[in-house]
User: Fold this.
Amino acid sequence: MHVRILGSAAGGRFPQWNCGCGNCVAARENKPTRKFTAKPRTQAQLALSSDGSRWFLAGASPDLAFQIEAAPELHPRALRDSPIAGVVLASADLDHVIGLLLLRELQPLRVYAAPSILRILRDENSMFGMLNRIEPQVVWTPMTAGAPFPLQDAAGNDCEVSCEAIFLSNRFPKYVKSKIQNEEARTASAALFFQAKSPKSSAVKSVAYIPAVEKLDNELLAKIEGVDVLLLDGTFWSNDELIRIQGNGETAHQMGHIPVEESLRLLKNTKVGRRIYMHINNTNPILNEESPEHRAARAAGWEVAEDSWHLEL
Amino acid sequence: MHVRILGSAAGGRFPQWNCGCGNCVAARENKPTRKFTAKPRTQAQLALSSDGSRWFLAGASPDLAFQIEAAPELHPRALRDSPIAGVVLASADLDHVIGLLLLRELQPLRVYAAPSILRILRDENSMFGMLNRIEPQVVWTPMTAGAPFPLQDAAGNDCEVSCEAIFLSNRFPKYVKSKIQNEEARTASAALFFQAKSPKSSAVKSVAYIPAVEKLDNELLAKIEGVDVLLLDGTFWSNDELIRIQGNGETAHQMGHIPVEESLRLLKNTKVGRRIYMHINNTNPILNEESPEHRAARAAGWEVAEDSWHLEL
Assistant:
């Protein structure tokens, strides 16, 4: 399986347009010092493929057009064309869905998401109608939890990657207006487990993508055990990070993110191939490669995702 | 007046993510040849300022976060800060409004637009609610036509730039669901006329920004006469451009854009300081600096906008 990390920052990018914190200034000036070394990052975006020619996106970041241009394997191969077959959405967060509106140039795509998420996008936000101006264009496909399903392109061709969703949270974005039905209460965000055969052998390889998770319970830990690549919520280092920097706001847990200092501890004995933090907020000290927090994460066997990493499994 | 062209392409950027036309391939590979020399461009975006410290955006392009990072004068000067005081919208086109959703990091801003446009954004698209999660954040201000009004920041401070809108069209974007009232029929798009005093003298300087116009009638031509800078719809060179390339589709006029080959002729005798085409579609041959169309526009006294141009009036 080919995995491309097209973007690794949380919502707002790094640097963030209206933020003058030490991390952001260092990334903006791009001049490493002994105190600050921090690489700019675009918003979290993953692309996966079994064969390297048909790709699925996990999420659709607001930076998607730039991210596609930066990845030659996603460039068109004909007059009107894209290797992107579809998109799997884990939530309706703006930094995870706005990119769909950038894919509106009459291209056939399949979009998978929980029924609640599809309703929020399509019924509450008329702009998404631009994705269905002609046929064939976007095919919206409801995603349920509990069993893997094969990812298909808009025409229904199997692309040899499977996906299993585990729903995690009832924390829908603050913009949502529609009433969420009881049976959908937990579908606000999902952990996505992708599987595909290795091109080198017939072994099945697995990637867990969990950009937002408040709590790592035993069920989720058991599911993570043994994956080849874990891409985990690295939004905040500590629970009160935003409050300390801004003087007010919510804790990491209140915003639906487990702090890195807790997940480091909780996943200490979980066996995974590579463990990588992504969806990293501009305030997180692990972005600064000179920080004790960055060193602590590296010493615990974690990598800190950077844009344009290409993993081959 | 300071004018910064942050982006100069039409919707979809140049190159466009799913387009493999000659122009797009040349821009993507960024290797000039004797046949093709074409610079990549982000989506049309203008920033204006009287004093160089408080800026207004005309439009809010999907590429706005990158465009802000590329313009040092728009960087924050404090922990949470932006020199951007507000935004003036000429239409509800996606490539003109999505950028508002990127300005959601709790920053006070004033957004001016026709009442019809404000309704489309705020009533039909719940995501724009993220711009009003706290106070002070975005202040939405209805814009009427026929008289200049002073641009103010969210707190009501006059920023020494005035704007006058002339409404041009009843062609609302195809995603719009709400019924447009009769008295609002013409408010789908606007020409924006900005004025400010020159920092060097007390002379009043003027900029006309008209990214989408189907017809240059005598009233509009009279209004354009004498402006210091004209930034005009350069979307398509010819009326059947998209149809010839794609094999189907609408004419330039049907999409609400006067072709460059017509506006060149119509504006031949109109006196303006600088005349610049912007909002240029990836299919427009003027993007290719080796093309006869590019040379014809230049010979007629026009410039072809490029990203990051800074005009001082």
Q: What stands out?
A: The first strand of chain B starts at residue 2 and ends at 7.
